[in-house]
Amino acid sequence: MVSEKDLEAVLEELRRLRTRVPQLTGAVAAGVDGLVVAHDTPGVDPEGLAALTAAALGVAVRMADATGNGGFRELLVRGEGGYVATYAAGRTAVLTLLAQDRVNVGRLHLEGRRAGARVGDVLDAAEAAAQASRATTRTTPARTRSTRAARTTTAEARTATDS
Question: Model confidence over 109-129: pLDDT tens digits?
Fold first, then answer.
């Protein structure tokens, strides 16, 4: 679960990215499972885009692995009207950017990689905090003698289960 503060930090990064690359038409930060974390995608369904990104990511990860090129870093798709670029964002998220056909692809990559790293830092820290919180709540206090249940004898146990 991403806190409001972390969500706002991711949204602010998406806004700054759109300022640095004016030809961007949308941006989605999503988990690798295809669930939207934050988005700035006027005119595009962010949930659908995140789900498609997860599907494309699965293929890209397998392709990188099959060719021995290491872990996933980025994916670029060029259509007739523009680009869809997906960048790794930490351990459990991706950043997908939509850009016009006239975008400077080098600038798109430069800014997309930087933004992906920043978004990844925020989301990885949020995930680490959530895991630490879960680990703290899972630990049970040590039992003391006063809280121990009384032992039953074999005869008592047999009686309890036989009736």
Answer: 999 999 999 999 999 999 888
Q: Determine the Cα–Cα distance for residues 156 and 39; give it in Å rounded to an integer.
A: 63
User: CB–CB of 6/123 below 8 Å?
Assistant: yes
Q: Which two tokens stand for residue 4?
A: 């409001």
pTM score: 0.80
Residues 6+ apart with CB under 8 A from 7: 37, 38
Q: Give the separation between CA 80 and CA 149, rounded to whole angstroms.
A: 72
Q: How confident is the model at residue 162 (pLDDT cuts 50, 70, 90)?
A: very low
**Token code pair at residue 55:** 């599907």
How many Cα atoms occupy the beta-carbon half-sphere of 32 within 13 Å? 18
Q: What pLDDT shows up at residue 154?
A: 43
Give the separation between CA 89 and CA 79, rounded to whole angstroms.
23
Q: What pLDDT shows up at residue 12?
A: 95
Distances (CA, A) of 46 to 67, 97, 104: 31, 11, 24
The SS3 assignment for 160 reads helix
> What is the overall mean pLDDT for the chain?
86
Q: Assign 3-class secondary structure to 38-51.
A: EEECCCCCHHHHHH
Q: Tell me which H or E stretch contains 32.
A: none
